[in-house]
Amino acid sequence: MMPAEDAELSVAERLNRECRCVGTDVPALQRWLEGDLAGRGLPQLIVAANPHLFSELPVFIAAEHAQQMERLIDAVETVARLPAYRESALSRAPAIAQIAPATRGVFMGYDFHLSENGPMLIEINTNAGGALLNVAMRRAQQVCCPQVADYLKRRPSADQLEDQLFQMFMHEWRLARGDRPLGRIAIVDDNPSTQYLLPEFLLFQRLFETRGVPAVVAAADQLSCDRESLWHGGQRIDMVYNRLTDFYFSDVPAHAALAQAYAADSAVITPHPHAHALHSDKRNLVLMTDEGELRAMGVGDDTIEMLLRHIPRTVFPRGDEEQWWADRKRWFFKPAQGFGSRGSYRGDKMTRRVFGDVMRADYVAQMLIPPSERSRGSEENRTVFKLDVRNYVYDGKIQLIAARLYQGQTTNFRTTGGGFAPVYLVPTQNEGRDADRNCVKAT
């Protein structure tokens, strides 16, 4: 007889391959977003210009996989609190990252591929985008069978999730400023009006303002700082929701005001350089998959076993270049301080010239873990998407799980039918089999 765990996992895999139900009413979601933006005098073209933010397909994940991801995140957070680990991680970081604020840093993103051996942590992102877009997606979930209806009833509503995210920012504020009233929040990026996730910036502005906190979407180079305060257009900024990918504010002069405010504690900035250095520098994954180093830091056996099982081996690509070239197909090469998929290469897709550039740059090599798949359509007309799973995490606790569907080498929002997708957990063997029977049907 097939073990219960294997049976459960096979149900999730089978649903991802065969279920043709529509999870998200994408046109209804887009209408909601357009109406919300139009109500504040903002151009509706923002949504039309971003047609691949959302997929209508739900993604199914076995409950056991979700539990394994949670345990792995707890193991990473446990190691990240160790003095020896922190000393090692911070030794590679610039001076600004040595500043340790009281805040935790919002929206850590733990990204996984689902493999035959369970979920594998591909990377950790400091300011993972998309959380509020996924919350908005809850407003447009469609019920395709009784099992999904029951599942959705047990999940937090969009309003409840919005409240949780707002309270996260308020917790950051209280950690830094105690009972002092919070004034104005700035959602900051470079040229935010041109950013692909501008709709989410505007949703955050709405989130704050509907709860009584003035908010502005601002370009980083529009900020100024004096000894006591951070300013935008003559208005003091008490808190910054930082969406920059210049994690150490090294771009001068564009990010000089933020660097000054962070160093002087003139404003509460979250997420921040210290959090990035401890969690998201990809060189940390080399440490997290080195059993000898982990033991030397005093990490316990159970934690080491969890890390080595669910993080692909990550190393520095050094040594014999010819040997690395011969072995390249087993590895995925990532810039140590990069973000997302920018500058990343699958070894089997690299030219010799690019490979030579990578070997001379600051890169890590991670054992290649192909993503799992989500299919749609009939056997005769099937479209296959790759998928990854993102856990949005604050202070070590998972807030939200979402999936991203795409085609190509790396995650993107350019695939027709792809984008953010809702995640449905397959809770038990029997319930999963019921969902299997009911959900595999034509849309």
Give your account of this protein's structure.
By secondary structure, the chain is of the alpha+beta class. It has a domain at 157-270: 3-Layer(aba) Sandwich (Rossmann fold). 39% of the residues lie in helices and 22% in strands. The protein contains 17 helices and 19 strands. Strands 2, 3, 15, 16, 17 and 18 form a 6-stranded antiparallel beta sheet that branches. Strands 5-4-9-10 form a 4-stranded parallel beta sheet, sandwiched between helices. Strands 11-14-12-13 form a 4-stranded antiparallel beta sheet. A hairpin with a 2-residue loop joins strand 2 (108-115) and strand 3. Helix 6 packs antiparallel against helix 8. The model is unreliable at 1-7 (pLDDT under 50).
Tag the structure with descriptive keywords.
alpha+beta, Rossmann fold, four-stranded parallel β-sheet, 443 residues
Short description:
The protein is α+β, with helices and mostly antiparallel strands and 443 residues long. The chain has a domain at 157-270: Rossmann fold (3-Layer(aba) Sandwich), CATH 3.40.50. It has helices spanning 4-18, 26-38, 45-48, 63-80, 83-91, 131-137, 146-154, 158-177, 198-209, 256-264, 273-279, 283-288, 291-296, 301-310, 321-327, 352-359, 429-439; strands spanning 59-62, 108-115, 118-125, 185-189, 215-219, 223-225, 230-232, 235-237, 239-242, 268-270, 314-315, 331-335, 345-346, 363-367, 372-377, 382-394, 397-406, 419-421, 423-426.
